[in-house]
Specification:
Blueprint lengths: L1 E5 L5 H11 L4 E5 L5 H13 L5 E3 L6 H12 L8 E3 L8 H12 L5 E3 L6 H12 L8 E3 L10 H10 L5 E3 L6 H14 L6 E3 L10 H10 L5 E3 L6 H12 L8 E3 L10 H10 L5 E3 L6 H12 L8 E3 L10 H10 L5 E3 L6 H12 L8 E3 L10 H10 L5 E3 L6 H13 L7 E3 L7 H13 L4 E3 L1
């Protein structure tokens, strides 16, 4: 049994009602439910009495250190078999880390710990690392985003990594680490026996200076499939260094996030080579990089390569215009693997989208999710978009937010949704103005096709 409740104020009567249900649940998720330390007393009892409970998710509740102390009493019971514990944004401090260290040391069943967005600090996470070094600890996933960590944490992390071959995922995003610390961390990862699969280092103060070391991790750890270094100013020179590791035969990267990395079209030569030859690569995010039309044209040529297996391309806010859309259309008409295309916040215009639709309508194109928010579109392109919606049954999600489509455009989109051949299940229309009559049409359409979700 699974209990999954979000954003609900818990009255005493409602909590009492749920208590009896939770005694037999395998999964309990209570995010944003205004829980406090007093609720943790009850949850501790549930944990100790319910050996079938394997996942507990309590994100965005004001549990505090006192709440975690109560919770951990249940987690330390021999009857506890919990595997996944989520405590993101629960108002925890370093004081909670000693209690959590005891759990890590005593509970070999615990494989995931998510404690991001808490002010644990470097001192607190050093204590957690001591728990990780206990032979009983079998942790596989550790999430420490927004934990106010500094460069001083790396020595403790490396020691934990050396002793923990089970660790597969490490997220340290949004902590002030800097190049020196990231270099040390990467050296530790290369030497560690763990088969790391995911490494997230977004917004960690990284520059091109530490990219050679990250590249070494990529070339030495064939297990690494998911790397995110977004929101770091690595620039074109840093990307060139990363690509040395990415192109190494040992590298098996599947997901690569490089958003807001100060990249320009100069990086697209290396990126194109990566997309066209690295058959393991499935998803790449280049959001908020100044790639321009020239860069996009190079990426499109790469998508046409016979070895490209990319399924998701996130290219939002990259300075694109109508000029690159013919190349995009050509790539869509050739590439059978691309499923998700995010091109929002680029000045594509009606003419650009009309060109793209030629590729979208090609039999080879299998796009499922298309994002065109804030692309300077008007009602003029909606008839062609409607044709795509009615013709391409693979298309299930479409975002047209922040475009001046007006009543005329929205009516054409509605007409496509009514078509029995249309398989769009989610239509996103934020910040588009239409009349009350069109609003009634949209509501009626939702009533007649309950499988369609219109978000506005």
């Amino acid at each position: 049994m699974e209990l999954d409740i979000q954003c609900e104020e818990m009255s005493p009567s409602r909590w009492t009602e749920l208590m009896s249900t939770m005694k037999s649940c395998k999964t309990i998720r209570l995010d944003d439910c205004n829980l406090s330390s007093s609720n943790c007393k009850d949850l501790s009892s549930i944990i100790s009495m319910n050996p079938s409970l394997i996942e507990l998710k309590l994100n965005n509740n004001e549990l505090g250190d006192a709440g975690i102390e109560y919770l951990c009493k249940g987690l330390l019971m021999p009857t506890c078999s919990l595997q996944k514990l989520w405590l993101q944004n629960c108002n925890l401090t370093s004081a909670s880390c000693e209690t959590l260290r005891s759990v890590l040391s005593a509970q070999p069943s615990l494989t995931e710990l998510h404690v991001g967005d808490n002010k644990l600090g470097t001192a607190g996470v050093k204590v957690l690392c001591q728990g990780m070094m206990n032979p009983n600890c079998k942790l596989q996933k550790l999430q420490l985003e927004y934990c106010e960590l500094t460069a001083d944490i790396v020595e403790a992390l490396n020691a934990a990594l050396q002793s923990k071959p089970t660790l597969k995922e490490l997220s340290l995003s949004n902590n002030t680490l800097g190049d020196t610390a990231v270099k040390q961390l990467c050296q530790g990862l290369v030497e560690a026996s763990c088969n790391l699969e995911l490494l997230h280092l977004e917004n960690c103060g990284i520059t091109s200076n530490s990219c050679r070391e990250i590249s070494a991790v990529l070339s030495s750890k064939s297990s690494l499939m998911d790397l995110s270094v977004g929101d770091n100013k690595i620039g074109d020179s840093g990307l060139a260094l990363l690509c040395q590791g990415l192109m190494h035969p040992n590298c098996r990267i599947q997901k690569l996030w490089l958003w807001d990395c100060d990249l320009t079209s100069a990086s697209c030569k290396d990126l194109s080579r990566l997309i066209s030859t690295k058959e393991t690569l499935r998803e790449i995010s280049l959001i908020d990089n100044n790639l321009r039309d020239l860069g996009m044209e190079m990426l499109c040529e790469a998508l046409k390569g016979s070895k490209s297996r990319l399924q998701e391309l996130w290219i939002r806010e990259c300075g694109l215009t109508t000029a690159c859309c013919k190349a995009v259309s050509s790539a869509l008409s050739v590439n059978k693997h691309l499923k998700v295309l995010h091109m929002g916040e680029n000045k594509l215009g009606d003419a650009g989208v009309e060109l793209m639709c030629e590729g979208l309508l090609h039999p080879n194109c299998n796009i499922q999710s298309l994002w065109l928010g804030n692309c300077d579109l008007t009602a003029a392109c909606c008839a062609t978009l409607a044709t795509v919606m009615a013709t391409k049954q693979c298309l299930t999600e479409l975002d047209l937010s922040y475009n001046c489509l007006e009543d005329e455009g929205i009516r054409k989109i509605c007409e496509a949704l009514r078509n029995p051949s249309c398989n769009v299940q989610q239509l996103i229309l934020y910040d588009i103005f239409w009349s009350s009559e069109v609003d009634d049409e949209l509501r009626a359409l939702e009533d007649s096709k309950p499988e369609v979700k219109i978000i506005s």
